[in-house]
Amino acid sequence: MTLQRPPVNSLNLDLLKEMSKSLDEIAKNKSKAMILTSASPKVFSAGLDIMEMYKPDLKRVEEFWTTLQEVWFKLFGSNFITAAAINGHAPAGGCLLAMSCEYRVMTGGNFSIGLNETALGIVAPNWFMDTMTNTIPVREAEYALTTARMFNVEEALKVGLIDEVATDKDDAIAKCKGFIGKFDRIPALARSITKLKMRQAAIKRLQDGRREDLNEFLQFVQNPKIQKSLEMYIQSLKKKA
Ligand SMILES: CC/C=C\C/C=C\C/C=C\C=C\CC(=O)SCCNC(=O)CCNC(=O)[C@H](O)C(C)(C)COP(=O)(O)OP(=O)(O)OC[C@H]1O[C@@H](n2cnc3c(N)ncnc32)[C@H](O)[C@@H]1OP(=O)(O)O
Question: What Gene Ontology terms describe what this protein does at the molecular function level (predicted)?
């Protein structure tokens, strides 16, 4: 699955809906595995589209968050094997997508990956945190989350946030295929049940608290102080260009 929403694959409602549909198709056509990557040469995904949260239409922003939750359920909780070929920056929601896969290969270069929410004055939702503690040790996750740490490729490899470094996108995809090939001699049902048991606690936590999670998000986007911060953040991103 190749993310292709220039310039930075920010996750807006339309892209999330497309992803949700594609994940359904992959599950339905009984694919063995999926590799998630990006059509951009330098950004895997810039995370959530800030414009969806800035001065939002309430109905749309509710659908936006619900669809994000759905994409996470379908990706993190998939039966099929998942790997991410991270060929560029992966901040925040971009990191969430990568961590929701079972294996991550990142191309070397001046790219960064991490959950930077606290730097934006945002508390990452529990399921973002659960996804991180499913990937790297709890102590490292707490440190990274509280300090909004963006890891460079070497740091990400050292902490286990990524599993391998690749020279370029083709190499990243080849390495993801190498990971998928490891399952050729492992019974598929045993593999998928084991994966889902490992992920069950996090999945159940969001299933049980899904409405509450949505309400918290809706309160968050309607807070005037948050709107002011988002406005300043958007300006800072645009000034950079
Ligand atoms: C239970 C729930 C309780 C409470 C809920 C609380 C919190 C949950 C709420 C939010 C969760 C948020 C998670 C997120 O994912 S927020 C998004 C965070 N993402 C970022 O901070 C990344 C910002 N972008 C960048 O750092 C860079 O763009 C880059 C490194 C990805 C790429 O750099 P480039 O130099 O290649 O590109 P730019 O020139 O910076 O950007 C080009 C273009 O794109 C616009 N843009 C960039 N990122 C975003 C984005 N995330 N959303 C929308 N638009 C974005 C940027 O402004 C430029 O636009 P112009 O071309 O200037 O118009």
Answer: delta(3)-delta(2)-enoyl-CoA isomerase activity
